[in-house]
Amino acid sequence: MTQPTPAKLREPLAEIAACCSLPQALETMGERWSFMILRASFNGLHHFEEFLEELGIARNILSNRLTRLVESGILKRAPCIDDRRKIEYRLTDKGLDLLPTMIALRQWGEKWESGVPSNPVLVDERDRRAIQPISILAHDGRVLTHHDLCWIDIADLNTGAVDDDHEGVVKRIATI
Amino acid sequence: MTQPTPAKLREPLAEIAACCSLPQALETMGERWSFMILRASFNGLHHFEEFLEELGIARNILSNRLTRLVESGILKRAPCIDDRRKIEYRLTDKGLDLLPTMIALRQWGEKWESGVPSNPVLVDERDRRAIQPISILAHDGRVLTHHDLCWIDIADLNTGAVDDDHEGVVKRIATI
DNA sequence: AGTTTCTAGTTGCAACTCGAAACCTATTTA
DNA sequence: TAAATAGGTTTCGAGTTGCAACTAGAAACT
Predict the structure, then answer these.
(1) How far in angstroms lies nucleotide D20's C1' from the CA of residue B67?
(2) Which of A142, A164, B102, B110 could form a disulfide with A21 if both were Cys (CB 3.0 to 4.6 A apart)?
(3) Residue A8 — pLDDT band, cuts 50, 70, 90?
(4) Separation CA B55–CA B102 (nearest Å)
C-alpha cells in the first residue's frame, strides 16, 4: 500500500548548491514580474490599481506577486488611513537594497539590448552627473573583471592585517 | 467575417515602458534557470551533461534555455574538436558582462536571505582580499542610495564641462 | 564488424502557472 | 440609495515545466 510519492514539481532553486545564496535570491526575485513590480515601487507606485495600469499585468498574477513579495519581506503592506479601501505597498529596507542589482541589470540591458542610452538618465541629484556603471571593485577601488576573481576559503581570507602569502586557492571564476 | 484577434499570451515585457531597458534585460535573463545556467558557466561548466548534473534541471528545459541564451548572444555554442559528440557552451562578452549583476544579486541574497557570509568567498586574486559590496557610485566615487538619485532629461545632463544650475528635474526615484 | 556507452537532444504526458474576464466584498462618492 | 472605486478571488483555456522514455550521431570496447 505504498502511496506513490506525489511528484514535487518546481523544487525550490535554493536546494541546489547550498554554498551560494544566488539561488535563494532567485527564489522570489527570479519570478516573472517581480523586478517590474520592484521598479514600479522605486518609481513611486504604491497601490494595486497603479501597478495594474502601469504594468499591464493580470489582476490575479499581480495579487499573487504582491503577496509573495510581502511574504519575502521585500514589500510591506499597510492599510491607508485616509481611504480604507486602499492598501499601500512600500519597499522595505530589504527591497530598497535591491536597487544596485536592478540598476546593474538595467545598465546591462542598455548596453547590450537597446543599444542607445536611455532617456531620462539616472543621475546623482547633488551634481546632476550620471552615475558610474555598476562594477566589481577591489578593496582599494580598482575595477575587477572575471579574470581577477577567485574563490578562497573564508579561513584564508586576507583581511589586510597580515600580508603574507596564503595557499588556499579554491577556484578561479574565469575560464574563457 | 472579422477573425477574433488571437489572444497574444505572454506579451514580451519589453513592450511595456519602452523608456527603460530593464524589461528588455528581463526578457532573457528573467526566466527561471537562466541565472543558474549563467552562474554555472562562470564556474567553468561548458557541456550539456555538466549543466544537467550540476543544476538538476530537466533535459528539455535545459535544451530550451541553452538555445534561448545562445539566441540572445549570452552564450555561444561550438562543436568540440577533440570529441565531436560534445558541444561547448561558452560565455560571450555580453554574457561575461552580466557578472556585476549576478554578484549584486548574490550579495543581496547573502545579506538578506541566508544571513551568513557564504564560504568560499569571492576575492581579488591579486591581494586575496574580499571584493567590495556592489553599489551605486557617483562620478566622484561617493556611494549613492535611492535618496540621492533622480532622473533628468539627457539634454540637461551635467557633463562636468559646465557647472551652472539646471532646471530639468524629471522625477525623484525615492519615495520612502 | 557489432555491440555498448556517451552526448545532446526530441517527444509524450501530467501537473502546474499564466492571462483574461467575470465575480465578490468593503468602502467612498454622487 | 445607487453607482463607482479598491483590492481581491474564481473560473477556465492556453502555455510552460518536469519527468521519463525514446532517438541519433559519435566514440569505445570485444
Answers:
(1) 22
(2) B110
(3) very low
(4) 17
